[in-house]
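Quarterly update, task 2.4: zinc ion-bound model.
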Amino acid sequence: MADGSTRSIIRREDYREPDWWTRQIELDVDLKPLETTVVSRLTLERNVKSPAGADLLLDGEAMTFVSASLDGVPLDPQQVERTATGIAVKGMRDGGVLEITQRCDPRNNTALSGLYLSNGIFCTQCEAEGFRRIAFSQDRPDVMSTYRVRITGDRKSCPVMLSNGNPVEQGDLPDGRHYAVWEDPFPKPSYLFALVAGDLGLLQDSFTTRSGRVVDLRIYSEHAVIDQCRHAMESLKKSMKWDEEAYGLEYDLDLFMIVAVSHFNMGAMENKGLNIFNTSATLARADTATDADFMQVERIVAHEYFHNWTGNRVTCRDWFQLTLKEGLTVFRDQQFTADMHSAAVKRIGDVQLLREGQFPEDAGPMSHPIRPDSYVEINNFYTRTVYEKGAEVIRMIHTLIGPKAYRAGIDLYFERHDGQAVTCEDFVRAMEDASGRDLGQFRRWYSQAGTPELSVERSFDPRSGSYALEITQGTPPTAGQPDKLPLHVPLRLGLLSRDGRPLPLMLEGENEPQGTERVLELTGERQRFVFKGLNSEPVPSLLRNFSAPVRLKLDYADDELALLLGQDEDAFNRWEAGQQLAMRLILRGVDAGGHAEASDALLAAFRKVLADAPADPAFAARAVQLPSFTYVGQQRPVIDVEGITGALRSLQRGLSTALREDWAATYEHFHDIGPFAADNGAAGRRAIKNQALFWSVQAPDAAAIARAQRQFERADNMTDSFAALRALVESRDPSAASALGTFYARWQNEPLVVNKWFALQASADDEGVLATVERLLHHPAFTLGNPNRVYSLVGVFANNPAGFHRADGAGYRFVMDRILEVDPKNPQVASRLMRPLGRFKPYDERRRALMRAELERALARPDLSRDCYEVASKSLE
Ligand code: B3K
Ligand code: ZN
């Protein structure tokens, strides 16, 4: 049978409806670890647009075909033909029931796609194309079927057996086996199918919908960790309520289940009524998880829940439309988190993620529009571009048409498309129709890759009191897209007086000012906006709340940045002003050979942030962080590794020393003496306190180390404990080794905490980190068989510039060696690890050659997976 290794290019323009529709799927799944038998019965209907005699094309891979019959009559061997991706069945009849018997091997399914075992628990992952590893099927999202699933398993090892929808029947069988039948009334694409069986602990709760229906909520996990699922349950209830209030969307089944498993390629999966989660996205208890973990669990629970409408009820016609569900659902989870916590801090985090993860993607060899035009392996396109930039595109629609019209557009989208598999175009059209706005040019955001650049020139005419902003936009060429057109960009802005007051905004041609903040719309390559009625030259606050995913160039003076940092109404731009102040010192330091010194302006800015910290400690914690290596690297055509690391380290030391008393005072001020509290306020205080601790150990300081040691010994929660451990490791104090040992000994039976322990060591900021990571590879707790563990050691290392970009290339070699070990087992994980190696272009000649050589080494492997092949070959193109 097809092994799934074809490397052909799939193109969006080639989309064609299938000749047949599978309307119903009945599955009999007989679970055995090494040989699971699946009998599938597909009820087929001819597509009226297709010719009568068309073959039925079914996808299938990594399975054994046993037999097939049509309406009870066995098929001739000539009626079943092999194709590149499965089989073609001849002689199909409208309304016919095709029964196929097939076998798969869950125990040896190390790709974690299809049906596999995670610590003895049978589970599935079908998105994007995993269902074809369970049953021969039309494994494409535009084919939606209702499912009836009968699971047979061992009573002892699989007391719990679950699938989508509602349980309808269960019973005992001879030989210690039993069965359960599930029915899902909502037609769904195969990628949303799920099945779980195992010995699982259960946490149960309920939620009453606004129309008064009681929904049974269940979270399953391995027994030992079920008490760590409470936060996920609370998050689920908050999400259900929020979606009713913010979007008018109510849950549609009587049962909602989440199952947490420890072996999972990504965070979680939104299967209808039966979400399957990575334990890393489910478990959170204060002693084992940090505040950041708590937020991450809440976010992912919400995201998967929100998919029930944006993804499941309305799904994608084909995989090129992935951002239809992902961009929209990320935007929804961003709104949710903003409502649950601090909106400004959330926005800052989202923008950091975009700049550090998506901008490089947009500038790299795999760059693609949020709606790609082609792919070799669709799993390579679950990217920051499709997700996070996709969310920015939805956010821009929200900004352009306003919240009311946006909500009307959402309502119209569901009114038109509930139960359908649709396209991004359908979504934009609903927004257009509901708002009456023309989004014609805006659609280019869906087809054009690359990060646009806005350059702003400003001029003030004191005689007429007019202030002009001349804005130029352009998008640099990206892989396969040399020419770019101007985009429709919402630019939110305000103007400040020199003493920091928000000024009324009146554009040329207007008779009166319209508030102190407004959204300008850029559509041309060059546009001029003139504001009237100003007494003196204002300070512009542009791209407030990061109203578009662009790079903005404007030459501010230091004192203007200080003014924005101290007084802008827009919290995001206050943060951004501080970042720019720091960035400019860092870049000066890079140009000076790798040594940066804190300026008075930056010291004053940090002091101001610390002085204001009591009002918003979580914001302050973000505002005293320096821009990352990755973001600094984007500011110059060539990434100067030594220059940037040198500048960042020296600036860190300088700020540590110059503000020593401030860090100490901040630490003492925000150090809660009482017992642990989980609320936002307490988490914010921990954030700024631990940030102060981090800063104080960047330069030798015995008192700071003593603080870290004391905190490490006494902490009653993981946030504080881990922050103290990090501080000790950062300080390079000899006590760090024993703290690492203590930490491991205490937590060795909590895999997620052990991941943190690996990750912390893999992120150490020095060249010696490679030796550490090589040593840890042989640690008894290390395994390449668990994606979380691989990411925590190898993935973290591959994103640690000090080790990965070592001048001798040993970092690159180490990562590629691991990729080649993982690839035959789990191509999705391997391909994810390969991305940093593919982005060699902005590095110096020598490093580029070293990285290329590693990619060529991979390409020379005849058995390289399609996933890795696509990344390596596109990178070398
Ligand atoms: N839809 C899944 C991701 C599936 C990834 C397949 N390689 C999780 C999510 O975005 O919610
Ligand atoms: Zn999603």
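Highlight for this quarter: The pocket of zinc ion (ligand 2) is lined by residues 303, 307, 326, 329 (CB under 6 Å).
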